[in-house]
């Protein structure tokens, strides 16, 4: 994959070509399919290549080299890395908390169609036995490569900040219980959200950090000082910053200030126009920087669906005008967001540079999930997980591991675009 040497980023920087793969130029395994995407604005880790090229060999991105290949002209479009969602509960009318592989795959397919090619399945508060049952199902999908891991959001959270979690199933983060849940995931646990101020909270943060599992601070009433202590113990993520935690006050800065100021912490943001005001999102980016923000959906089963009634764990949710709220109490209950909409809002409403928005949608969460060597950016050797966007930042094609999940649809074509080989469409 290359771009012209004179390609300029939106910040007037010159985009550098990624390092070449170890394979000698012009060679590839016999029989490997090779396709070149041309003419698009390609978002690279260090900028935007105007009129760039992305070469795909089999399931991987390859260094550009002469040789026979099919080409697809994407002039007027963007090519960005496949999105990575580290906090998503479901979609397409399905929930990861159902403990059903069929439902999980339906949710995965829904988000893939919107450009999310990598995701960690998030569960909601439940009994430990029920969560272990769900983890057994989801861990098989992790082994198969359909999921990048499991995120346990609850039950170790603060009662006063539980949001759309069943308060009757909450419990303190006893390290033995936390460890049992992690072990039930059979190596697939990637993150546990907890309130560090609860009894056992700090010990559990240390246990998770020592186990290679992300300790995330969320659904918490912790003070500024308590959160700093948790970060010192190994917490590295803020679960949907600003939401389900005390607000930033001038005499009580609380979790928000502590999580924003510490360079070791990546902050999740739900950019759906409901959870956060654009000015608050701008504040978070200004303080944390693009390298410490991860856009997430926190989407429940209604994502990709219409208004109506949906389950969220044991609770009922009503979606009206795309906003999900608990039937009882009216608390916001996750979102119906997909990451393509988060990207579109980031650029058109929030005024972010597209490369910064893409980093928050792809490379940053990939790094946290431990898969940045495979996905999260357009570089030779990584999986060919790519999203084609039209000029309005809407999905026009999705590729995962070299295969089109959503075939590219270009302007004035009634059918999905083909790949040109020697003047014919293949």
UniProtKB/TrEMBL annotation:
<dbReference type="InterPro" id="IPR011059">
    <property type="entry name" value="Metal-dep_hydrolase_composite"/>
</dbReference>
<feature type="compositionally biased region" description="Low complexity">
    <location>
        <begin position="10"/>
        <end position="30"/>
    </location>
</feature>
<feature type="binding site">
    <location>
        <position position="275"/>
    </location>
    <ligand>
        <name>substrate</name>
    </ligand>
</feature>
<dbReference type="InterPro" id="IPR032466">
    <property type="entry name" value="Metal_Hydrolase"/>
</dbReference>
<feature type="binding site">
    <location>
        <position position="240"/>
    </location>
    <ligand>
        <name>Zn(2+)</name>
    </ligand>
</feature>
<keyword id="KW-0119">Carbohydrate metabolism</keyword>
<dbReference type="GO" id="GO:0008448">
    <property type="term" value="F:N-acetylglucosamine-6-phosphate deacetylase activity"/>
</dbReference>
<feature type="binding site">
    <location>
        <position position="153"/>
    </location>
    <ligand>
        <name>Zn(2+)</name>
    </ligand>
</feature>
<protein>
    <recommendedName>
        <fullName>N-acetylglucosamine-6-phosphate deacetylase</fullName>
        <ecNumber>3.5.1.25</ecNumber>
    </recommendedName>
</protein>
<feature type="active site" description="Proton donor/acceptor">
    <location>
        <position position="298"/>
    </location>
</feature>
<comment type="pathway">
    <text>Amino-sugar metabolism; N-acetylneuraminate degradation; D-fructose 6-phosphate from N-acetylneuraminate: step 4/5.</text>
</comment>
<dbReference type="InterPro" id="IPR006680">
    <property type="entry name" value="Amidohydro-rel"/>
</dbReference>
<feature type="binding site">
    <location>
        <position position="219"/>
    </location>
    <ligand>
        <name>Zn(2+)</name>
    </ligand>
</feature>
<dbReference type="InterPro" id="IPR003764">
    <property type="entry name" value="GlcNAc_6-P_deAcase"/>
</dbReference>
<feature type="binding site">
    <location>
        <begin position="332"/>
        <end position="334"/>
    </location>
    <ligand>
        <name>substrate</name>
    </ligand>
</feature>
<keyword id="KW-0479">Metal-binding</keyword>
<keyword id="KW-0378">Hydrolase</keyword>
<dbReference type="GO" id="GO:0006046">
    <property type="term" value="P:N-acetylglucosamine catabolic process"/>
</dbReference>
<feature type="binding site">
    <location>
        <begin position="243"/>
        <end position="244"/>
    </location>
    <ligand>
        <name>substrate</name>
    </ligand>
</feature>
<feature type="region of interest" description="Disordered">
    <location>
        <begin position="1"/>
        <end position="33"/>
    </location>
</feature>
<dbReference type="GO" id="GO:0046872">
    <property type="term" value="F:metal ion binding"/>
</dbReference>
<feature type="binding site">
    <location>
        <position position="251"/>
    </location>
    <ligand>
        <name>substrate</name>
    </ligand>
</feature>
<dbReference type="Pfam" id="PF01979">
    <property type="entry name" value="Amidohydro_1"/>
</dbReference>
<feature type="domain" description="Amidohydrolase-related">
    <location>
        <begin position="78"/>
        <end position="405"/>
    </location>
</feature>
<feature type="binding site">
    <location>
        <position position="164"/>
    </location>
    <ligand>
        <name>substrate</name>
    </ligand>
</feature>
<comment type="similarity">
    <text>Belongs to the metallo-dependent hydrolases superfamily. NagA family.</text>
</comment>
